[in-house]
Amino acid sequence: MAKVSVYNIEGKEVDTIELNDAVFGVEVNEHLVHMAVVNQLANNRQGTQKAKTRSEVSGGGRKPWRQKGTGHARQGSTRSPQWTGGGVVFAPVPRDYSFKMNKKEKRAALKSALTSRVEENKFIVVDEMKFDEIKTKKFQTVLNNLNVNKALVVLEEGDKNAEISAKNIPDVKTARVNTINVYDILKYNTVIATKAVVAAIEEVYA
């Protein structure tokens, strides 16, 4: 089992904990990780882009000039793709880009992402993230104490003050145990989690 240090919000080491290898010590499956990222980005796409084909643009009902004898190339319609104002050849139409991954694949991808963060020493555990008031400056001070800038901070249900305090800090995103995903874990340089969150993740995914 991997051992990691536990820090307080002042950035001082106060304890160490062992991480469950079933979640934080698996063999990293890069293919599943990549598939999970593509899956999330594809599912987020609106798919509402649209351009008109030659059958949808207006005009072009008659032949612009006769077939032979003009010296021009033959043309059947002014709405052909080569004409200004003509239709688009393979025009995009509204479509659904989403695809499904099964639950086992999603879990394996998430475990792989968490394991990679632990292996790279980019997984920081803090004892708790309790704030008496909503204060962005205080949250920024915590990040400075931990020597972190771009971070995904996974909080407990009751850490509402900390969650709101982090909202206005660029390059910081907060999440709950049930909302963490592979894309966010990889997008941010560091993952910060409380001891309670680590226990909850192990309980859910082990």
TrEMBL record:
Superkingdom in the source lineage: Bacteria
SUPFAM superfamilies (alphabetical): Ribosomal protein L4
Gene Ontology process terms (BP): translation
Span list, region Disordered: 43-85
InterPro entries according to UniProt: Ribosomal_uL4 (IPR002136), Ribosomal_uL4-like (IPR013005), Ribosomal_uL4_dom_sf (IPR023574)
GO MF annotation list: rRNA binding; structural constituent of ribosome
Record keywords, A-Z: Ribonucleoprotein, Ribosomal protein, RNA-binding, rRNA-binding
GO cellular component, one term: ribosome
Family label: Belongs to the universal ribosomal protein uL4 family.
NCBIfam families according to UniProt: rplD_bact
Assembly: Part of the 50S ribosomal subunit.
Role this protein plays: Forms part of the polypeptide exit tunnel. One of the primary rRNA binding proteins, this protein initially binds near the 5'-end of the 23S rRNA. It is important during the early stages of 50S assembly. It makes multiple contacts with different domains of the 23S rRNA in the assembled 50S subunit and ribosome.
Protein name: Large ribosomal subunit protein uL4
